[in-house]
Write a structure and sequence with these properties.
335 residues; 11 helices; four-stranded antiparallel beta sheet; alpha+beta
């Protein structure tokens, strides 16, 4: 029967914490023009929320948008052949298969003047990595956070890892930032070793660089979060499981398993895996991060006000020694 002709009757109410069986899920899947879909009101039942609330959650979250001035830009470094029908910026340094594609402005909105500026800046950045002057073109703390996050997660992807670069405007007072993480489908797959982006050409260009600014920033960041990372991750996961969103996610897994005839892991099973991963990962990083450089607090890093790249030195040392818990700087807060 063509379900596209199914009367759009109101979905039946569902008691709180009701068990959604396979028959109910299948009854709410429509086939419209050969495509299987589900109405928002039916999907809202799985999450146990009003349809209005579900629609609110899928709207663009302006607080999580990357912000640049009109003169700024966002580019992505990736195997450009995935978008070879769009304009891209040729890199004078990287493998010819890896170039920069426009994310902001949109490719069709990039003026000739903007294209020249972005291309010149990104190629100057590429060259700076080779000659050790990269802090003039990219924020080392932002880069260190990005690389450390991949090492914590154990991302197996390397060449295809999406690397986004943001420059807030075209002034000389701003440099590139690594504003977000992407691609988590290969997480927790590099047990007992660095993630592949760390050992691949991108990370290797920094970790083996004669300029150790990024390496020292990486080490300081790890020292800053290592003592509480495991507890923080597990606490946040448990809070998610107990939340309305977590309960809805668990129900959506039931729907996915029914629709695709597969067996996605449950949240309980995933928690066991996450617990094991975080325990072993913290131990691995504690054992290996110190060897990256023999002095993370090298001459020239300490400012006159007693801070290192915005971090209070005494707080960092006290945190490492377990004297007090040091707060995570606001600039690293996840959206």
């Amino acid at each position: 029967m063509d379900q596209s002709n199914r009367p759009l009757v109101p979905a039946p109410p569902m008691p709180a914490h009701a068990v959604i069986d396979d028959a109910f899920i299948k009854s709410r899947i429509l086939t419209i023009r050969g495509v299987q879909v589900m109405l928002d009101r039916d999907l809202a039942l799985f999450y146990g929320v009003p349809t209005k609330r579900l629609n609110e959650q899928v709207k663009r979250n302006n607080d999580c948008r990357l912000v640049t001035e009109k003169s700024g830009f966002i580019v992505e470094h990736d195997p450009y052949w995935w978008v070879d029908d769009e304009p891209y910026i040729v890199s004078a340094v990287h493998n010819p298969s890896y170039n920069y594609t426009y994310k902001y402005p949109e490719p069709e909105d990039v003026t000739e003047e903007q294209a020249e500026y972005i291309s010149a800046y990104m190629n100057a950045y590429d060259q700076s990595v080779l000659n050790g002057t990269y802090p003039d073109y990219i924020d080392a703390a932002s880069l260190a956070n990005w690389l450390l996050a991949h090492d914590i997660l154990g991302i197996q992807d390397s060449g295809g890892t999406n690397k986004y670069f943001l420059k807030a405007d075209d002034s000389d007072s701003t440099v590139l930032e690594m504003p977000l993480l992407w691609d988590f489908d290969s997480a927790m797959k590099t047990a007992g070793t660095w993630c592949r982006i760390h050992t691949g050409s991108f990370g290797r260009n920094y970790f083996s660089n004669s300029n150790k600014t990024m390496v020292r920033a990486y080490q300081r960041r790890w020292h800053f979060v290592s003592a509480t990372l495991y507890q923080e991750v597990m606490s946040r996961f448990d809070a998610f499981v107990a939340s309305e969103q977590g309960r809805g996610f668990a129900l959506s897994r039931t729907a996915d398993n029914t629709r695709w005839a597969t067996q996605f892991t449950t949240l309980d099973n995933f928690r066991t895996r996450l617990d094991s991963w975080m325990s072993s990962r913290v131990a691995f990083l504690n054992a290996n991060v110190p060897a990256l450089h023999n002095n993370p607090y090298a001459d020239g890093d300490v400012n006159e006000d007693g801070t290192i790249d915005g971090i209070d030195l005494n707080m960092v040392i006290n945190h490492i020694l377990g004297v007090e818990k040091a707060p995570v700087p606001a600039e690293t807060a996840a959206c």
